[in-house]
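Lecture 7 notes: from sequence to structure.
We start with the chain below.
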Amino acid sequence: MTENNESKHLGPIDLRTQISVIKYYNKLTQENPNMNKLDVIEEVCNIFDIKQSSFYKIKKNRPTPPKRKHNKSHNFTYCDQDYELIDNLIVDLNKQNKCVTIYDVFRKMKSEPNCDISFKDCGKDTFYRLMSEMKYKYKHSNKVIRNEIIKTPRIQKLIKEFLIEKLRLEKLYSPPKIVYIDETHIHINDVNKKIFLPMDENKQVKINKTVGKGTRYTVIHAGGQGGFIKNSHLILKNTEVDSSTFEDWIENVLMPEVPENSVVIYDNCSVHSRQYNKTPNSSTNKQNIKNWLNFNNISFDDNLKKHELLNLVKKNQIKPGYYVDDIIKKFNCHPLRLSPHMCDLNPIEMIWNTWKQSVIHSNYGKQQDFIDLMIKKFDEIDNSGVWDRSVRHCVREVESKYCNLFNIFQIPNESEHNYFFNCNFNLDDN
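Predicted structure tokens for the same chain:
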């Protein structure tokens, strides 16, 4: 009676065990084809502690794994119309002058009664997944503002003028050595914050015992394709760079190391932009306005009032000069200023990121070795070819985008081993 009941009902043998029994039986049969089947069945029954009648019942029923439950979240999809609807939700949230998160968008979608988004009834996790599939992601607000500034006609004009002048100099000296200048800051306590530690808290030792950022170093350097200009770095401890310091560094340290007919590219920060013959404005006193008019050989009546002198200045606008530009020209080189807000046209910005990460990774906060470490990392970057890749990326990716926009020149073939582009337009026409 018990045997018959066992053959009809498998009793406590669960589905997972049944599947394992069949798998193991098939495995033994394949590995030992000459083995007697009764011996195989007996071995399977001994391993899983079941009766032979139970085995035959399992083999007859052929158990299969249960099907997974269908995830209803995958029923939700998106269409092209959803992009516009979600964009409108985000715009409405931005008008409230708040930092919009993906959860804010989700709540906004749920609260809108007339919202026709195809996946409006989905849950929060599904909404996050769909937003990721639709390529929505967080962006830094400053980058959005910068993109709007770059699109203005004034900046577009300056970008075009910069590219045309750079191309003109490249054709003139076919090509010249291009030197990029910039400065950055780094702190003595900028070290790698994430480290592996043992699980036992008693064995965990603090490596960084300092508090705060520590000593601040200002670093000025220049380089181009091939690496940094040798022996031209300037490192200042707890000191901000001013115009006189920068001009002295340009004249006495950098330019003697730069070959003639080089093009020196730098941005328009205040340190680089000390002017002479600066155009007077309403805050300029009357005597200085007269001095400016005399310096530029502009005749005027000495009895004129201040507003009349300023009107005379406006009629005789003269472009002011820069001390840095004159120093560079004195060494038979060509100064070229970047367009405002266009730091991505300067490959040394990428170099600074690589250099800082290298310094931070090797820094342990030792004051006496920090300057030597920074100089050592300059040499390592020169030997790694980072400069060549950064210049190539800047020219082929960033400059080419704007050159195609303004229809200035064509990009050369990738097989060409020079990083400078060929001109196909008449500069005189521009």
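Points to note: Residues 1-10, 410-430 have pLDDT under 50 and may be disordered. The domain at 150-194+209-278+320-429 is CATH 3.30.420.10 (Nucleotidyltransferase; domain 5).
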